[in-house]
Amino acid sequence: xxxxxxxxxxxxxxxxxxxxxxxxxxxxxxxxxxxxxxxxxxxxxxxxxxxxxxxxxxxxxxxxxxxxxxxxxxxxxxxxxxxxxxxxxxxxxxxxxxxxxxxxxxxxxxxxxxxxxxxxxxxxxx
Length: 126
What we know:
Elements: E1 19-20, E2 23-24, H1 27-48, H2 53-75, H3 82-92, H4 115-118
Antiparallel strand pairs: 1-2
Helix pairs in contact: 1-2
């Protein structure tokens, strides 16, 4: 074995997920899935259900538009996990964080005020 070889770590661009058609990372595959779903829906409506051309096109456009709204509204240019955080906030409400003014009246107005003095309806005890 030759011990004169020097081994060094290199940056093999593994930290970049790349871009395809201007979409970051693997968002291209979401678009391909939306287009495939739209084309399948279009042909199912035309061939199997004998629906009209304009209705079939309009209905098949829905999956594509939903995927585009998801990509550009919740993923493209946003931090990782933004889409999950947004949907979690919508479905289950706010998480740990400061309350909006007036939203919660049973907590202290100031962090150094004792809880007993901040309870509404009771005089402060001293």
